[in-house]
Please model this.
Amino acid sequence: MASNGIFVFNGDADGLCALHQLRLSEGAGATLVTGVKRDIQLLAHVEAAPGGRVTALDISHDKNRDDVLRLLNAGVTVRYFDHHFAGELPVHPRFDPHIETVSDVCTGVLVNRYLNQRHPKWAVVAAFGDALPNVGYSLAREHGLTAEVIDALAQLGRCLNYNAYGEDVDDLFYAPHFLADAMLPHADPLDFIASSEVLPVLDDGYRDDLYAARAVAPEFEVPGAAMLVLPAERWARRVSGVLANELVKLGEKRALAVLSPRRGGGYVVSVRVPATSPLGADDFCRSFETGGGRRIAAGINYLPDVDVDRFTARFKATFAD
Model:
């Protein structure tokens, strides 16, 4: 095991930016374990020796609790940064939680606080990437960033987040491991933007995929709720989450579900709800076996074909006016 232990991180913008801040501050000697955005039970892949340390970033403790306990019982220290539904946390001397599930934080912001705001621009990137623009703007203004800089950081966040969606790494433009190492030399995200070819590639892909997705007619559209079912294409698997974010930004206060077919059958589901919704997206999605997320943005990692009608009826009954 590397001297700095093991970092286990979600491969989206928030996970990458949380990881990057810690690597800038603590060194880059750790082993990395990651996956696509929906691959959140990552601690199942981790083996660590007694006395070692595992740092988990932006993956639900609720979905990893058994493996947290396994590692703690094996003599490993587990440091945990996250903002998703956590379930019951262990009370253990080697468990170091930094978990907040309120709506105005993401994991990159929690790490920024932990490090006493040593690398705040990367936390701004994380917030915009995690579809928390108000948090991003607030943090950026707190540090005196100009509108031009904020726009650049927001674009990077959205593109890094877009890259993480897909059924597996083959669907992505860049593997999260690659992006983590590409970011590593850059303490300032503006330097990364200026010197890397990553952003132009992701920006082009983002625009092309959204253009294709916007041509898909809604499965249904009623006051208070709408649902889209995307085709079984690689671009559709990539765009499902960011399409939901983009459609929500258009301003209509309604719940939205986007279903993207998986290669072997079933669907990945992205759900967005207004902040004023009586029921959170996370609570709704957790009523399905692989569901989880945050109050206004959640999803289901695998919805079987036989459950689509049940999902549709429940979604419409819950959120339609």
